[in-house]
Design goal:
The protein has about 200 residues and is of the alpha+beta class. The chain is built from five helices and eleven strands.
């Protein structure tokens, strides 16, 4: 197992910091009226996977399919959660292409509050072109897909899925790649491969 380079760890930590907010967003009923027009509802969920080039990564309550050439690091816990945090990245240590999975088990704010907070604070946190979409997700009682661009050694595109379970835990899958490599890296396909396990 390789250790993630510092810039990747910092980038993932910054991205995942939105999973558990320090602030307390206002009540969804009061913010719904002011939610930007970028919010919408859609349906998403996996597609075909080549088993010779991909492997299933299992964590507490989820499965995710990633390229088998990617490296992986697992931390037993973080400030955000008591459950393992899994980071997977393109095979090179210097690669800015990665996916992280963490489970927010603090239950301070639900997925709707957290995604609204991200949307409301996008300008302050450096997230550009943020789009928040409520999605239907098998096994989730509530789910949101959030995408944005940010500058970190060049323009990166980031996609985050917040899938809230009946227990209140939120499975967060965050993928990042340089904007010009995002589609080729198939970050959306990796995020879409998430299967929640009751």
């Amino acid at each position: 197992m390789r250790i993630l380079p510092v810039i990747t760890a910092v980038a993932l930590a910054a991205t995942l910091s939105a999973c558990t907010t320090n602030g307390t967003p206002t009540d969804p009923a009061s913010t719904a009226a002011s939610t930007s027009s970028s919010s919408s509802t859609a349906s998403a969920q996996g597609g075909p996977v080549d088993p010779e080039r991909h492997e299933v990564k299992k964590g507490p309550g989820y499965e995710l399919i990633v390229p088998s050439a990617w490296t992986e690091a697992v931390l037993s816990s973080s400030k955000l959660t008591t459950k393992p945090v899994r980071w997977m990245q393109d095979g090179t240590d210097a690669s800015p292409i990665f996916v992280g999975v963490t489970i927010d088990d603090e239950k301070k704010n639900d997925a709707e509050h957290q995604s609204l907070f991200m949307e409301k604070t996008a300008d302050v946190t450096g997230k550009k072109n943020l789009k928040r979409t409520k999605v239907d997700w098998d096994g989730a009682k509530d789910a949101y897909l959030i995408e944005w661009d940010e500058e970190l050694g060049g323009t990166s595109h980031v996609m985050q899925l917040m899938a809230q379970l009946d227990s209140g835990d939120i499975v967060n899958v965050v993928g990042r790649a340089p904007a010009d490599q995002f589609e080729k890296a198939n970050i959306k396909g990796i995020v879409d491969s998430l299967k929640l396990k009751g």
